[in-house]
Structures are given as structure tokens and as C-alpha cells.
Amino acid sequence: MKRGYPLMSGTSSNFSSHLTIDPLDAPPLRFKVAERLEKMIADGILKPGERLRESELAAMLQVSRGPIREALQLLENDGWVEVRPRLGARVRERTEREVWEYFDMRSALETHAAGLAAASTDEAGRRRLAQLMAEARAALDTGSIDELREANRAVHRHITVLGGNESLTLLVQHLGRRVYAFTQRTPHRSREVCHEHEEIVQAILDHDADRVVELMTEHTRRNWLAYQEYARKAPTGEAARVGTISETY
User: Fold this and answer.
1) What is the Cα–Cα distance from 121 to 209, expressed in whole angstroms?
2) Which of 18, 31, 118, 196 has the most neighbouring CB atoms within 10 Å?
3) Helices (H), 80-144
């Protein structure tokens, strides 16, 4: 049985003081569909430039075309999809400049977040970071790339959380979803990333902010260079064309 909550004080006088509001149900289906489609784009299942036909997507996700249409509008607003009159929707192709900007912004934000983490006195958070790093090392030893990549991402996420700036954490998470669409194309770097994370985490635990900034800057630079190398070799449509290193970094 749902429990009602009194309307907060300070709301419009048009409402009765005894009015109650029921808790919200699960998110509307369009948000779940949009989340699924976004992941399919980020994972490369739906490729840049690919047509997104409502009927095919509806059959694939086993929903009606209404939530598909609404989800595509959400994804268009968020920059994942472009919808053209009479031509329908397709996965948006990123320009070389856009891709570089994502990496550049992520580098700046995550480097700052890591510096904040090094100054953190949250002992529980620091222990959690050490635990996540241990789990990543364990995944490295098992040889499972999928487990290692997820463990690496968990370490990265917690470094930002440990910094204690919630607004910054939300920005990094939002941007991280976009960058993931490109970094996940370079799974061969997973082992290197784990070793780089070990150095970063140790510097954080040592409260060495200068060292953390230096290491995180180099770490994000290597991510960008790895993506550039992938993009140069990728077939047309698999990746946004990127410029030379001297043009962008």
C-alpha cells in the first residue's frame, strides 16, 4: 500500500493544506528505453550513422513504438541521436573536435577530482578505494578483460566520489558516459590502466596531491592517444576521424 506524504510548506496556496502526494512509481518506460539505447550506442552495437527505425527497435526491445519515439527524442536532446524531417533518426556521428573536447574536459575534471581525493580525510572512503583497487588487481590476475574493465571503472568512479564535490561527481559521470563510447574501443589498454590506477591510488592514499595530478594528467593523455591509434585503424563509420596529436594535444 502506498503511503502519502504531506505537501511541503511554502507551496502554492491553491492547494489544500491537507493535500497528500503519493510517492513516484518507477521511471516511465521512455527513460528505461533511452538508457538501453544509449548503452547500445556506447557499446558500439548501434554504430555512428546507423538508421534507427522505430519498428525494428520496438521489436528488439519488446515495447511499443511510443516509448521508442519518446526515447529517441530524449537521446536527441542529449546529443546521442539526430532526427531529421522525413529521414528519421540515426546515431549521431561525432566530429574529431567533439571527441577531443570530451577527452579534454574529462582530463581537466578528473584530474581536479583526484587532487581533491588526495586531500580527503574520509577514512571510510579511503579504505573503500583501497578495497576497489585490490579487486581490480584480482581481476587483473584472473585475465578476464570484462571484469578488469568494470573494476577499473569502479576505481575511477570512486576517486571522483572521494573528492567530496557532489556537483563535480555528477559532471564527471555525465561526461564519462560519452567518453566510455570511445575508451571501450581500446580494451587492450585495460591492463595498463590498472597499473596506472595503482600508482594514482597509492599517491591518493599518501596524500600526495602534486603526484596525483601528475599521474592523472598522464593517465588521461594515454587514454586519448590510445583512442587516436584505434581511430586511425578503424574502418569508416567505426570511429570519428581524429586529427594528429599535434593538432589536438
Assistant:
1) 13
2) 118
3) 96-119, 123-142
Taking only the tens place, the pLDDT of each residue in 139-167 is: 998 878 889 989 999 999 999 999 999 99
Other C-beta atoms lying within 10 Å of the C-beta of residue 141: 9
- Rounded (5°) CA angle 214-218-220: 120
Helix (H/G/I), strand (E/B), else coil: 37: helix
Pairwise CA distance, residues 217 & 108, whole Å: 8
CA separation for the pair 111, 216 (Å, rounded): 6
In the CATH hierarchy, which top-level class contains the domain 96-248?
A: mainly alpha
> In a 10 Å sphere around its CB, with 0-12 CB exposed, 13-18 middle and 19+ buried, how is residue 45 labelled?
exposed
Give the model's pLDDT for residue 236: 57
29-91 belongs to CATH 1.10.10.10: yes
Q: Is 23 a residue whose pLDDT tops 80?
A: no
Give, in degrees to the nearest 5, the angle at Cα 163 between 157 and 167.
80
25: left (phi over 0), alpha (psi -120 to 50) or beta: beta
The model's pTM: 0.72
Task: Give which of 133, 113, 103, 102 is closest to 212, Cα–Cα.
Answer: 113
